[in-house]
Write a structure and sequence with these properties.
This protein is mostly helical and about 55 residues long. The protein has 2 helices and no strands.
Length: about 55
């Protein structure tokens, strides 16, 4: 099972992308998706550290 912090972080990113796809124009949804991917990329070292504990 994933640690709570990791699971919450992934849920927030998934929620942001899903809401953007439903509520925003296509170009804005693409921007939100790219920002979410960038966020995941910057969080990877911390998530790896959490999973290794």
């Amino acid at each position: 099972m994933l640690p709570v912090r990791l699971r919450d972080g992934l849920a927030e990113v998934a929620g942001a992308v899903t809401a953007a796809r439903l509520l925003f124009p296509g170009w804005a949804a693409v921007l939100v998706t790219l920002l979410a991917l960038a966020c995941c990329g910057t969080e990877l070292p911390r998530w790896r550290r959490l999973l290794s504990q």
